[in-house]
Amino acid sequence: MHFTQMPKNCPICGGDKIFKPIQQHQNNGVVSALFECDSCSVQFWEPFKGAGKEWFEKNNALSRIDILKPVINKSHHKEFLKRHKDLPKNTKIIDFGCGPGELIGVLRKKGYDVWGVDHDRMAAGIAKKYFGDKNIYEMPLEEFFLKNKEEKFDVITLFEVFQQLDNPLEFIQNLKRLLKPNGKIVLSMPSRTRLLVNLASWDFPPHHLSRWDKEAVSNLFKKINFKISYLKHLNEFNMIVEAVNEKIRTGLVNKISKNVSETPKNIFLMRIIYILARAKDYVFGIIPSVFLFLWAKINGLHGGAMYIELKNK
Predict the structure, then answer these.
(1) Which of 4, 77, 109, 266, by CA, is between 20 and 30 Å from 232?
(2) How does pLDDT run across 5-62, given as a tens digit for each residue?
(3) pLDDT tens profile 52-96
(4) What is the percent of the chain with per-residue pLDDT over 70, rounded to a whole number?
């Protein structure tokens, strides 16, 4: 395969030595190429440029109608809550990329001082609607850094956001400035070692700009003198199911929700359609996924998503 977009420097670490070409991808006529940096081990797409707020709002998986109140159902949220059951009551937490705010809601009930930031107007609006608008910000993450330089947090969470950043080194440097001396950073991201890594459309540009494994994460955070204190692979089976389901999904829920008025009757019908669509996904996706999961285990493949906690060395 001929690669026409050879990088001059790694956009992650700045290295300029060896870049291993991995694959190419085309989306709406735009060709991107995936490379692995020999210096930091991160895989990155060229061109390395984020899609911007407008693209994410247009392609948001959230329905245009609030179908259901946001609740904890993501494995990285569950893992975080399991591992942090007894934080001191004065703990100050910020969730970057907070989405519709389900984690904020649970943590505030526990009495913590919780902040949330998301550049998606719809997601932040849902979070404010259900969990109050105190310290929930609808703005680019970089803008929050500029406007809140004096704030300090005990815990910074960054779930399923890191692979979308087009400035990861600058970003973690800003995170460190917001963190108290003994604070921690908690994040999650897809593991590039998982089975069917290329089957999920969301793991390509312009949605995701980079792919990570444990070594790549460790290499980057060394630059701010942080180390991995805990890592767990989550959703190994569920991400196989999700990859299979993507090939049979019709997008009916989003199509209908964008074209109906927000009346009580329509919202009720949308909830029924949503539940049935989810049931269909699992019925038709779970059987082939069981065989794929067993095959992966037999062949020593693992991955899913990585849940990672980092502390200052």
Answers:
(1) 109
(2) 789 899 999 988 889 999 999 988 888 999 999 999 999 999 998 877 777 767 766 5
(3) 777 776 776 655 445 578 899 999 999 999 999 999 989 999 999
(4) 88
What does the alpha-carbon distance between residue 35 and residue 25 come to, in Å, rounded to a whole number?
Answer: 12
| 120 within a domain of the structure (yes/no) | yes
| Neighbour tally for 4: CB within 10 Å | 8
Closest CA relative to residue 234, chosen from 282, 199, 186, 270: 186
Token pair of 295, please? 């095959």
Structural domain including 80 reads 53-239+300-312
**What is the strand order of the sheet 30-37 is part of?**
19-27, 30-37, 43-46, 210-211
- Residue 35 phi, psi (nearest 5): -125, 155
**Does 154 lie in the same domain as 15?**
no
Cis peptide bond N-terminal to 206, omega within 30: yes
Please check whether residue 255 lies inside any domain of the structure. no
Q: Does residue 286 fall inside a structural domain? A: no
pTM: 0.84
Looking at the structure of the chain, the number of domains it has is: 2
Length of the chain: 313
What is the 8-class DSSP label of residue 217?
H
Q: What is the CATH number of the domain that holds 44?
A: 2.20.25
| CB within 8 Å of 211: residues ≥ 6 apart | 34, 42, 43, 44, 163, 190, 192, 197, 203
Same domain, 211 and 91: yes
- 180/69 same-domain check: yes
Residue 1 domain-assigned? yes
Residue keyed to tokens 């949503």: 274
Helix (H/G/I), strand (E/B), else coil: 118: strand
Q: How far apart are CA 233 and CA 240, in angstroms?
A: 13
User: What's the pLDDT score for residue 238?
Assistant: 80
Nearest to 205 by CA among 5, 9, 37: 5
Residues 38 and 178 in one domain: no
